[in-house]
Design a protein that fits this description.
Helix content: 25-40%
CATH topology: Rossmann fold
Order of helices and strands: HHEHEHEEHEHHHEE
Structural class: alpha/beta
Strand order of the largest sheet: 3-2-1-4-5-7-6
Protein name: Class I SAM-dependent methyltransferase
Largest sheet: 7 strands, mixed
Shape: globular
Keywords: Methyltransferase, Transferase
CATH architecture: 3-Layer(aba) Sandwich
Number of strands: 7
GO molecular function, one term: methyltransferase activity
Organism: Tsuneonella flava
């Protein structure tokens, strides 16, 4: 397996995390539900028989949200964590969706297909090391058909902005909903820098343009979480 686009926290998604991931994130369902609702609307132009790549598929939440409303879509889910993929495989099998899915352990660079109608990557980019972020977006761009759509959401704030402390205080409330112990604001800011690789919206949008995407369109924000969509231009 290639090491390109290695997550910034390679040991974070272990068996313990995989087993508890859905329960830990259940308190955030109003946020993820809204994000998935809007993602479905953004992807409305893709064909009824679309092929969709889910990068950082985790336990399969994005596939579940998209597959229900789009019965003709087929999915490839890729994730570097074998433990998370095993939970994903089990959940998809129980829901009768596994036949529409292919699961791959690895990163976007391990996906050979370059003809996807859409790529979805939610809550993933901030885990990619900063020196590999450009390659991450370029790899996604190469796997889309011309006019294919990319949808992504990540933790994205300007770490030099004067409102940073207030923004991080809001984020601390998100952390508490997930059952994590309260941390000082400065500790959360340090976490945003390392092990996460949080960057400003302006930097993210610039990286998308450099990768070859058309103008990124902001479509979602919930505290520090921001989402964009963009198209791979026609040839």
């Amino acid at each position: 397996m290639t090491q390109t686009n290695t997550p910034a926290t390679p040991n974070f998604f272990n068996q313990e995390m995989a087993d508890s991931y859905d329960q830990r994130n259940s308190a955030l369902q109003p946020i993820s539900g809204c994000l998935h609702f809007l993602t479905n609307l953004v992807l409305a132009p893709v064909p009824r028989n679309a092929s969709v790549l889910c990068v950082g598929v985790g336990t399969g939440a994005d596939i579940f949200a998209l597959a229900t409303d789009n019965p003709g879509w087929r999915f490839v889910g890729v994730d570097p964590s074998a433990e998370m993929l095993e939970v994903c495989r089990r959940r998809l099998d129980e829901a009768g969706l596994l036949g529409r899915c292919q699961l791959v352990r690895g990163t976007v660079e391990d996906i050979a297909d370059t003809h996807f109608d859409a790529v979805v990557s939610l809550f993933v980019a901030h885990f990619i090391k900063l020196d590999q972020r450009a390659a991450f977006y370029s790899g996604i761009h190469r796997r889309l058909k011309p006019r294919g759509l990319f949808v992504s959401a990540e933790i994205s704030v300007d770490l030099e902005d004067t409102s940073l402390h207030a923004t991080v205080k809001d984020w601390a409330r998100i952390q508490s909903l997930m059952g994590q112990e309260e941390k000082p604001v400065e500790a959360l800011i340090a976490m945003f820098r390392d092990p996460l690789g949080v960057v400003s919206p302006a930097i993210t949008e610039g990286l998308w343009r450099d990768a070859g995407f058309a103008e990124p369109v902001p479509f979602f924000q919930a505290f520090a979480i921001r989402g964009w969509h963009a198209q791979r231009p026609p040839l």
